[in-house]
Write a structure and sequence with these properties.
single chain; about 1000 residues; alpha+beta; 6-stranded mixed barrel; 30 helices
């Protein structure tokens, strides 16, 4: 019992060490579990929401629309649980200028169901549900009416930017009709689209560089009132996929099995069958047109024949009359009147030649008959000509039918193709990667501080330990006094850390996340396994340090332990050997130097602990500086142009005329911009994507006219880059990179994510879905977006080659001969504000699809989630620095109580004692700061390398101010600790402290 009481008395006396170990454990467990828990809660709530709304696992699109036969074939695929055929239509309406929207049919099979936020779901024709973004932008409310105008081109493939198939379908297939929706609409509800969780009322502006939407808004309508037998897409649910987390690899593997089956025989067979349907429909149209024309020509010929017969009868009657009159005259000159009468009663028989001669004579003598004959001949000639022209036209259409109908292409996509899904996943993955790295530093610092604190605690009790061992207590029993002390501190600190880690930090992160995304049903959850392992990790580390400290002392005999520990032998330090310096240092300065460098363990622990905390602060600020400069570097440094304008192919000429007539452009470059994909060529060539990459990246394919290849460098800064280490990259000289006909230039943001470098082989997909293998001639410095630059000649070579994976359609064939320059890069005159206003005004023009101002993008670029996490990390690192300095300072004082008492006996005032002790701590702190600043830069570089996000490359940037802030913050913590240490120094009693142990 006395042993226990003494142990408790010893614990109470060492309350400062207890608090230090508990605080370090608290911070470490909070960092280890907090970021993980926040991301996991977001992942789980989003996964539950996706399952509840039936977000599709697979989406199938076709360039020619999907028929009932396609839907039936998809239902037969092994592993498919549900198939839902969907219809949609793109419409426009007036809302402070022309805006576009996608009319989306609400499926009846439970897939992609919008989440009702306000009002009710539409049920009748003409009723719609809109998103909150539309309500915010339009100022409308439930009950408001809206009139829309269907776009001229049917939107059969909303995600592929390929309307050729739809147009071809509408022109050649008479049995399938494109979807059509009511145009007079009434808003009855406000919903959340499960395919896009972006918060329109939040502060996230980053969607500007990630948005993949082809229209401004989405309107949801019931099946009532929707016509058309052609489907825009088919959405599928996969068996067993709902049981997996949508963000886990197991889910991706489950879905991939089904997509592979669809990509196999089903896709190929249905593409051929669909095209044959289009060919058959085209041939039927031609056959119907021929039959109808033949019928019309037959009717016309019958009419002409009837008119000609009537004409011939009239002429023949005149011929007969004239022949009879002639015969009567001849008989009158005969022998008797009876013969004359007989001759007059009988028409003379004329041979055919005579009759024809008389017909021609009669017709020629009569203007009316002549005109009638000419009209009949002209009608017959025109009919013959029409028949020949029609036959020639139909023959031409028969010959052109196969080439005019493109090859049908299917696009099989999973959830990764959804812009909102991939943005959320990449954001959470990047934050989780930070949460996996920072706890390592906290754990190392915790072990170091625990070793220092417990070693000093055990050393202070040397004589007591020797006494207990001499009395017969086992070494394990004696060591348990310290092990239980450390264990209890870890458990209390860890418990508080779990509260902060599973409640405090996640609540903070989720507040930030909810400002960017809408996540219904979000709740905080506790992970027993991860939480227990988090505490266990720190318990093991701290107990290991405690065991080491106990073993170091208890390996001695009880007699040796009960005697005071011999002071360290005097020794020279390196500075003493530098006589010119040493001789100029004062007495107290020499004492300070000896105290610092003679006690190596204290030097290492203090400098290492301070350096680690400083490195964490610098690392957090480095990430913040890197993210803050992304927009400025990209839109003011890399992009030299001020404006990018994109139009439809049909409006390209009108767009250029509009921009030129405004007189704002000082120089411009016409290009072709297409949305496509870049996929690594595979592992066979050794240049495939690095481990962990998805192997594919959405890109912006920019084709440059052959005659203006040299002008690209005036619009975009072309700098070759090579991969470096620790977040660095080698950047070549500006202007040393040229676009040529031997390969493509890939943006650094895409190349870094996929492990692509100069000389690699990649597979490019253009805007028409045509794929081809291309050579990467260089990697260009690029931070935001994934641009791939290609020359006009090389574009034609790639997408007009026989090696292309997909057969070319008619449009791609035409483009290979003469590309349509549907975009313009321009430099503008005027201020940034005027350039932004001009871009906004251009978007209201009917010929402009998109106008982007680089000035606006540079000013509005934000990455709020990363900034919030960095602020959290910096705050925790500052707290860790404060605890570390407090622990080291108290340990330093406890080790030197007799020394401080001696100084007081010698006549040192309290202030002089403060200065004597604090000067050493300040020097050690400065040494730690000096070491921690470059260490933080290295750690920041390694962490940013792990942040591979779609369309982003983090070029590490640490501003001088960040180094200053980190150094000043650490020094401020050191000064704050002095305020706690000075009273301890004042309470040292020289008499009791200098008593002999004997």
């Amino acid at each position: 019992m006395a042993f226990v009481k003494d142990m408790l008395r010893m614990w109470a006396h060492s309350w400062k060490r207890f608090i230090s170990i508990a605080m370090i454990t608290l911070l470490g467990v909070a960092v280890l579990t907090g970021i993980y828990a926040g991301c996991r809660d977001a992942f789980r709530s989003t996964d539950r929401f996706f399952d509840a709304q039936g977000l599709h696992d697979v989406q199938v699109l076709s360039t020619a629309g999907l028929s009932n036969g396609d839907i039936a074939a998809l239902r037969k695929v092994n592993g498919v649980a549900k198939v839902q055929a969907e219809r949609s239509q793109e419409v426009t309406f007036d809302l402070d200028g022309r805006k576009s929207a996608t009319m989306q049919e609400i499926g009846t099979n439970g897939i992609d169901q919008p989440y009702l936020q306000e009002g009710r779901m539409p049920k009748k024709a003409g009723e719609i549900a809109v998103t909150r973004k539309f309500i915010r932008d339009s100022g409308k409310r439930i009950g408001s009416r809206l009139t829309v105008i269907p776009e001229s081109a049917s939107s059969d493939t909303s995600d592929t930017n390929d309307t050729n198939g739809a147009d071809g379908t509408n022109e050649t297939n008479g049995t399938d009709e494109a979807p059509s929706f009511p145009t007079k609409l009434t808003i009855v509800g406000v919903v959340l689209d499960p395919q896009n969780l972006s918060n329109p009322d939040g502060y996230s502006a980053m969607t500007s560089f990630r948005s993949t939407a082809t229209t401004d808004y989405t309107f949801f309508a019931p099946s009532d009132g929707v016509t058309g037998t052609l489907y825009t897409s088919a959405t599928l649910l996969v068996k067993g996929a709902a049981a997996e987390s949508t963000f886990d690899e197991s889910y991706e593997n489950t879905v991939k099995q089904v997509t592979d089956r669809i990509d196999g025989t089903v896709k190929t067979d249905r593409q051929k069958a669909r095209r044959q349907e289009l060919l058959d429909a085209g041939n039927k149209k031609i056959a119907d047109a021929r039959a109808e024309a033949d019928k019309k020509f037959a009717d016309a010929q019958s009419q002409i024949d009837a008119n000609r017969q009537q004409f011939n009868q009239q002429v023949d009657q005149i011929v007969s009359m004239q022949a009879g009159a002639a015969a009567a005259g001849a008989a009158a000159n005969g022998a008797n009147a009876g013969a004359a009468a007989a001759a007059g009663a009988t028409t003379p028989q004329l041979d055919e030649t005579t009759r024809e001669t008389m017909r021609e004579t009669i017709i020629a003598a009569s203007p009316e008959l002549t005109q009638a004959k000419q009209q009949l001949d002209q009608a017959q000639s025109q009919l013959n000509e029409q028949k020949a022209n029609t036959e020639h036209t139909l023959k031409t259409k028969e010959n052109e039918l196969k080439t005019s109908i493109p090859q049908v292409r299917w696009y099989v996509q999973d959830r990764q193709s959804l812009g909102g899904f991939s943005a959320l996943k990449s954001d959470l993955d990047s934050i989780q990667s930070l949460g996996n790295a920072f706890p390592i530093v906290f754990l190392l610092v915790a072990v170091m501080m625990s070793l220092t604190a417990m070693a000093r605690m055990v050393e202070e009790d040397r004589s007591l330990i020797g006494t207990y061992v001499g009395l017969g207590y086992g070494r394990l029993a004696v060591a348990s006094r310290y092990l239980l002390f450390a264990l209890l501190a870890c458990l209390i600190g860890g418990g508080l850390g779990l509260i902060a880690g599973f409640l405090g930090i996640p609540a903070f992160l989720l507040v930030v996340l909810q400002g960017m995304y809408v996540m219904p049903g979000l709740r905080l959850e506790y992970d027993w396994l991860y939480g227990s392992l988090g505490i266990a990790l720190f318990v093991v580390g701290v107990l290991a340090a405690t065991i080491y400290a106990c073993v170091q002392e208890m390996r001695q005999t009880p007699a040796a332990l009960m005697r005071p520990k011999a002071p360290r032998a005097g020794s020279r330090i390196l500075l003493e050997r530098i006589r010119p310096v040493w001789n100029r240092i004062g007495f107290l300065g020499k004492v300070t130097a000896r105290n610092i460098f003679r006690f190596k363990s204290r030097l290492i622990m203090t400098v290492g602990g301070v350096a680690g905390c400083t490195a964490l602060i610098v690392c957090g600020l480095a990430i913040n500086d890197t993210v803050a400069d992304l927009g400025i570097k990209q839109y003011r440094d890399i992009y030299q142009y001020d404006l990018m304008v994109v139009s439809d192919d049909s409006d390209a000429s009108a767009m250029r005329t509009k921009v030129a007539s405004d007189g704002r452009v000082t120089s411009s470059l016409d290009v072709r911009i297409e949305s496509g994909d870049l996929t690594v060529a595979g592992s066979g060539d050794g240049d495939s994507g690095k481990a962990g990459s998805s192997g594919s990246e959405s890109i912006q394919l920019v084709a440059v006219p052959e005659k203006h290849l040299s002008d690209l460098g005036e619009m975009v800064t072309l700098q070759p880059v090579s991969s470096g280490i620790l977040g660095t990259s080698g950047v070549g000289k500006t202007g040393s990179l040229k676009l040529d006909d031997d390969g493509v230039i890939v943006a650094q943001s895409a190349a870094s994510a996929l492990g692509v470098k100069a000389g690699s082989k990649v597979r490019l997909t253009n805007g028409d879905g045509v794929q081809a293998t291309a050579k990467v001639s260089a990697v260009n410095r690029n931070l935001i977006g994934s641009d791939v630059y290609v020359s006009e000649t090389y574009y034609a070579k790639l997408f007009d080659s026989k090696d292309a994976k997909n057969t070319k359609n008619s449009k791609s064939s035409e483009d290979s001969e003469a590309l349509t320059w549907n975009a313009m890069l321009a430099k503008l005159s005027g201020s940034d504000t005027s350039q932004t206003d001009y871009a906004e005004s251009l978007e209201e023009d009917s010929s402009v699809m998109k106008a982007v101002s680089c000035a606006h993008m540079a000013d509005s670029f934000k990455f709020d989630l990363m900034g919030a996490v960095v602020a959290l990390i910096v705050a925790l690192a500052g707290g860790l620095a404060l605890v570390v300095l407090f622990t080291l300072a108290n340990t330093n004082v406890s080790e030197r109580v007799r020394e401080m008492a001696t100084l007081k006996v010698l006549g040192f005032f309290d202030r002089e004692v403060h200065h004597y002790v604090n000067r050493e701590m300040m020097i050690l702190t400065v040494m730690g700061v000096i070491l921690g600043l470059p260490l933080g830069r290295l750690v920041g570089g390694m962490l940013t390398m792990a942040l591979n996000m779609p369309s982003l490359y983090f070029e590490v940037e640490v501003k001088p101010l960040s180094y200053v802030i980190a150094a000043v913050a650490t020094m401020a913590f050191a000064l704050l600790v002095q305020l706690f240490v000075n009273p301890v120094l004042d309470r040292i009693d020289p008499i009791s402290s200098l008593k002999s142990v004997e």
